[in-house]
Amino acid sequence: VAALASDDRVLDGIDGVYVVDQGTDLVADRQLFAQTAAKLGDKLRYLRQPNLGGAGGFTRGMAEISAANEHCDVILMDDDILCEPETVLRLSAFANLTTQPTLVGAQMLFLLNPDYLNVGAEEVHLDKLMHGQKVPKALRNTSMLKKNQERRVDAGYNAWWTCLIPAEVIAEIGLPIPVFFQWDDVEYGIRAREAGFVTVTLPNAAVWHADFYWKDFDDWARYFSSRNSLIVAALHSQMDAKALSSMLFRQIAEYLVGMQYGLAHTTLQGIEDFLAGPQILRDGGTAALSAIRASRAEYPETVKHPATAAPVRQADVHVRRAAGEPSMLKTILVKRAIDQWFGRTQHGIVGIPREDAHWWHVSLFDHVVVTDASQSGVRIRQRDKAKARALLLRTLRTLRRFRRELPRLQREYRRAMPELTSRENWKRLYG
């Protein structure tokens, strides 16, 4: 916000800045806020509401702005980016020159490697429940000092670290779906395209965002990714229950042989809550957040221990690097599962760097200290046959139900969509 306020050209080109504060450590209490607020003057709108995740924060801004002026475009921005004010001007200028209303998104640069482009144009593969997929010919992990961006590529959607939503799009398709966190931007981009509005990821308009690879995959956010990917696929694709069930089983099996029991639970909880139907979204996700954080605490390997205070002696840990990815991974998965089940694993405490912590390597051992992706701590995985058995049985039951109930659930989610995305529903959630 301070970056926007520091640029007079940006202030001249925007009608307002809406700050949606959902936290307990309030933005308004920060020392810089008063100075920034004075600079913005009556262009600043500071709003407080319950924590409804990124989806709730972005939607509140869209709802307030479109209600105040139905002709205003909305630029959404994450709260953890380093903003380049020029990007706002470029997004707005490009949007004003399009012949049809177009969603215009910014690229993402690495915060810790600031000349490197992390993400350009992306698309989603709903048949595999995968978002963030690089569009062919788009740039990724590329130095902007060495590469000029000249090629146009079409985006399937643009994530909301920074993205302009035209007023016409909001008027036509309404507000986002209240999924709390993750996949809300994907769903909105897909819905916009189905309504005839395309997305452009604009080269040379970008923001810096915290590097994703410093965040460990095994965290509570995986629940929302699991659940919400299924919701979005139910809304916007013809889901193949058998193929998806096989894919999900393979995914969870890899977690189990890798002794990531908490991650398997997190993924399963997402599937189970999807199976609960659209009523799971009635509170905007607040109960789900509390529940998944509490349940993950029951799995010791989800805890990150400070590197200097890990509950193992450093002298007892022997580092084992991976030799390379084996061939015939499906066969290897079955073999590792059998070896884990019968305890035919290498004993003793083994240390494995994060980049080597593949399931097919970790599963060779029964007690592993894995470096956290943040490089600030370690996670300790230990073979637990009882947990593996319970989670395997739970997986089989859940996926059997998934195959049986998927057609009905698709119909239910689609019927619920108008009510879920309505202004009345969002006003109820804001309280």
Cα(first) to Cα(last) distance is: 25 Å
Q: Which structural class do the helices and strands define?
A: alpha/beta
The fold-level CATH name of the largest domain is Spore Coat Polysaccharide Biosynthesis Protein SpsA, Chain A
The structural domain count equals: 2
What is the CATH top level name of the largest domain? Alpha Beta
Stretches where pLDDT is under 50 for at least 5 consecutive residues are none
Quick structural gist:
With 431 residues, the protein is α/β, with parallel strands linked by helices.
How would you describe this structure to a colleague?
The structure is a single chain. The protein is of the alpha/beta class. It has 2 domains: 2-214, Spore Coat Polysaccharide Biosynthesis Protein SpsA, Chain A; 221-387, no CATH class. The protein is 44% helix and 17% strand. The protein has 15 helices and 16 strands. The chain has helices spanning 2-5, 8-13, 31-40, 53-68, 85-97, 167-173, 184-194, 221-236, 241-257, 261-275, 286-296, 329-342, 359-362, 385-420, 423-430, and strands spanning 17-21, 44-48, 74-77, 81-82, 103-110, 116-119, 122-125, 130-134, 142-143, 162-165, 199-209, 305-306, 318-319, 350-352, 367-371, 377-382. Strands 3, 4, 5, 6, 9, 10 and 11 form a 7-stranded mixed β-sheet that branches. A hairpin with a 4-residue loop joins strand 7 (122-125) and strand 8 (130-134). Helix 8 (221-236) runs parallel beside helix 10, helix 9 (241-257) runs antiparallel to helix 10 (261-275) and helix 9 (241-257) packs across helix 12 (329-342). The longest helix has 36 residues, at 385-420. It is globular. The mean pLDDT is 95.
